Amino acid sequence: MKKEDTVKLISAEGMEFVIDKEAAMVSQTIRNMLTSPGGFAEAEHGEVTFPEISAVILEKICQYFYWSLQYSRGKETDELFSFIIRMVFLSGRSTYVVRVLALCCIA
Amino acid sequence: MSNQKKRNFQIEAFKHRVVVDPKYAEKTWSVLEHAIHEIYNHNASGLSFEELYRNAYNMVLHKFGEKLYSGLVTTMTAHLKEISKSIEAAQGGLFLEELNRKWNDHNKALQMIRDILMYMDRTYIPNAHKTPVHELGLNLWRDNVIHSSKIQSRLLSMLLELVHKERTGEVIDRGLMRNIIKMLMDLGSSVYQEDFEKPFLEVSAEFYMGESQKFIECCDCGDYLKKAEIRLNEEIERVTHYLDVKSEVKITNVVEKEMIASHMMRLVHMENSGLVNMLLDDKYEDLGRMYNLFRRVPNGLSTIRDVMTSHLREIGKQLVTDAEKLKDPVEFVQRLLDEKDKYDNIISQAFCNDKTFQNALNSSFEYFINLNNRSPEFISLFVDDKLRKGLKGVSEEEVEIILDKVMMLFRYLQEKDVFEKYYKQHLAKRLLSGKTVSDDAERSLIVKLKTECGYQFTSKLEGMFTDMKTSQDTMQGFYSSHLELTDGPTLVVQVLTTGSWPTQPSITCNLPAEMSALCEKFRSYYLGTHTGRRLSWQTNMGTADIKATFGKGQKHELNVSTYQMCVLMLFNNADRLSYKEIEQATGIPASDLKRCLQSMACVKGKNVLRKEPMSKDIGEEDALLVNDKFTSKFYKVKIGTVVAQKETEPEKLETRQRVEEDRKPQIEAAIVRIMKSRRVLDHNNIIAEVTKQLQSRFLANPTEIKKRIESLIERDFLERDNNDRKLYRYLA
Fold first, then answer.
1. The pLDDT of residue B191 is above 80
2. Which residue of B has its CA nearest to A44?
3. Is B531 helix (H, G, I), strand (E, B) or coil?
4. Which of B331, B274, B262, B334 is nearest to B300 (CA)?
5. Contacts with A36 from chain B: Cβ below 8 Å
6. Please, are residues B20 and A13 in contact by the beta-carbon 8 Å criterion?
7. CB B15: neighbour CB atoms within 10 A?
8. Contact A39 B45 (CB under 8 A)
9. In this structure, are residues B187 and B138 in contact, taking their beta carbons and an 8 Å threshold?
């Protein structure tokens, strides 16, 4: 992956996830962050820090991005539902899940 | 996690943290407020989007959306007021540039702010029914900047000034105009309309009113229209470059109204350059321009059409009633055709083949052609002239074209039955004297007439052609069965069926002995093969070719009429004959005899006879001799052919009378037909129906129809109703 095509997502613990820009842009918020005029720090350096999101969650989020790209045209609502359930189960904390989904502007 | 494996899975409702810290909201808000300031001061590069987003998110989440929103409004308003002051301070031309720049800045800032406050935009705002951030930003800009007292009027007057400059020929910064106008459009269509479009249209109307007044005083019609067209195109171009597309219709309406509609009548009737002059001079370009401009305004085209129609009718009427022009029928018809061609061209080249104009043209022609009741006769004479000699050497397509044009004129005639009568007469003369240039052309015209008027019209005409053909066959049969006659004079007989040919009184004369014997032989031959028929010789319509030897031995072949032949043959047995002797010997009626002697004795170049005394007219006491001194350049001399000519007054009256007579049974037949199907009908309706039925042949006169009805009542075809005098009943 070329450097220009990627962004770095940094979790609360400092774990860094380097993913394609296209995947990151699935989240409307991240998209705004990176394309907003006026040069916010994130767009300048190509990295976004999430001080309140743990690495485990962030990892699931990145997986979601790639899954969404793959099924972007699909009506695979069953898949989506089971994916969310898996995420909830994994984190054990539904609160985080909902907040993260809000971040991704799905909920 | 593993001890929970056996538990049933439940999704809990989301419970948010309850905030204890009252200053939490204040702290969070001040962070955001600071960020907004930085954004407006072009200092945003140090900020972290994620932090700001998270702060806004938390505020909304913890039910502080109200505070966030009102804080936003206050902060933004404050900034906009500052911006407003800096724009007001700009001098002269820089005003618009400054406004444009600040607008761009504001838009960028607005977008950044909206991005960080997106969560509020999506959740708090719809719930609380507040204006979304982007729209809020536009509204605040509109209220604090555009509608601020010092800026509003200045902005409008600057914009209008620039437009005026461009109209007077200066070059302006179109890009800047476009941006400013787009700003107004983005703020809402009502802003664009109220703050710019309405005043723009008013000012434009004034401008064009003045301009059109100035032009119309000093320009002629063609120039004025050119200028109007230029201005119109200019405005359309202006709209595409920097105005809202919806303004195009409105501004073009203004131009059309001021420059065209208000001066329409004056333009059309302008002396020396108005519509009539353009028509006379075939100014296609100017006419086309007028058409395109006038079709944009109400009543534009109908004005042009009306003026054209009345002009046409005027010219037509002059043409048709001018005694000079009526002397030569062929000229007359040719002029009609030329006029039609001219206007056809105008309509196709300048008026886009507009059907309504074509209709106006047709109705005008119909009007004035029928003003002169000799038109049918003249048209027939025109055709006669063409078919005799006018079409010699003309290609087949051109023949078709000419005949089609004649048909066009024919369609305009109201009295088609008069035409039919004349055409029959002229055709008979053509056929019998063998003078038609092209058989194909004749037949082609018959076919066209048939298509136009139906079989009935042309059945007799076709009968005439058939007779000619049959006669040829008959003559062949005659000579092949009478081989002993091949040495004597050659007889060519045309056997005419009485019904098909124009009725002629049958006059006989005394034929010379050689001929009468031959004629008798033919008569018995014919009646032998066709029993039950009667033949009568039409000696007034025949021709003869005679070989003559004159005093000095000069030989000539003379082509003469039958009457003339009878007279000349008498001189084989006598040198000198008196008028009375000739009259008695030949039995030719007096007027015809005088005419025929005149053409042989008094016409230069054809004077095979000499008359004593040498006066111009034939007197009863005159004597005639052979002119031994007769000379001619040609061996074959033609004397006195029977040519179709314009009728003399008495002939004309006679023909018209016959036509009227023929119409009577046609009217009666129409009445009976109608009554038979309707059974009962009132007077006015009968008149209307009969007129409609006979329309294709002639225009029926209501008085005449009334007379026919009376006649039919007398003959018990119809009866009047006992109670209602106006009602008629059909009697079976």
1. yes
2. B45
3. coil
4. B262
5. 49, 111-112, 115-116
6. no
7. 8
8. yes
9. yes
Domain holding A30, by residue range, is 3-105
Instruction: Determine, for residues B44 and A42 on separate chains, whether the beta-carbon distance falls below 8 Å.
Output: no
Q: Is the peptide bond before B613 cis (omega within 30 degrees of 0)?
A: yes
Name residues whose C-beta falls within 8 Å of residue B564's C-beta, 6 or more positions apart in sequence.
B544, B596, B599, B600, B639, B640
Q: Among candidates B477, B489, B495, which has minimal Cα distance to B431?
A: B495
CB contact under 8 A, B108 and A98: no
Q: Are the Cβ atoms of B11 and A32 closer than 8 angstroms? A: no
> What pLDDT, in 10s, does the model give residues B417-431?
889 888 988 888 888
Residue contact A94–B109, C-beta within 8 A:
no
CB B259 within 8 A of CB B212: yes
**Residue listed under structure tokens 């004035």:** B368
Cα–Cα distances in Å, from B391 out to B419, B428, B442, B575? 21, 19, 11, 44
Q: Which of B237, B234, B239 is nearest to B197 (CA)?
A: B239
> CA B477 → CA B432, B482, B483, B663, distances in Å?
20, 9, 10, 41
* Gap from A73 CA to chain B (nearest CA, Å): 24
pLDDT tens sequence across A9-66: 999 998 999 998 888 888 888 888 888 777 788 877 888 888 888 888 888 888 888 8
Q: Which residues of B fall within a CB distance of 8 Å from A105?
A: 118, 122
pTM: 0.74
Give dist(CA B40, CA A88) in Å, integer: 41
Task: List CB contacts (< 8 A) between A44 and chain B.
Answer: 45
> Which residue in B has a C-alpha nearest to residue A90's C-alpha?
B1
Closest residue to A36, CB basis, from B9, B54, B111: B111
Beta carbons of A50 and B50 less than 8 Å apart: yes
**Separation CA B624–CA B597 (nearest Å):** 9
Residue B184 pLDDT exceeds 60: yes
Say yes or no for a CB contact (<8 Å) between B49 and A49. Answer: no
Please tell me the total count of domains within chain A: 1
**B45, B50, B118 member nearest A49 (Cβ):** B50
Which tens digit of pLDDT belongs to each residue from B574-596?
888 888 888 888 888 887 888 88
**B45/A50 touch (CB, cutoff 8 Å), yes or no:** no
pLDDT for B288 equals 92
Scan for tokens 């009502």, then name that residue.
B190
Q: Do A39 and B57 touch (CB under 8 A)?
A: no
Please count the CA atoms within 13 angstroms of the CA of A39 that sit on its side-chain side: 9
Mean pLDDT of B538-556: 83
B115 → closest Cβ in A36, A51, A102 = A36
> Distance of CA B218 to CAs A102, B263, B270, B273, Å?
74, 14, 12, 12
Q: What CATH number has the domain bearing residue A76?
A: 3.30.710.10
B718 bridge partner residues: B730
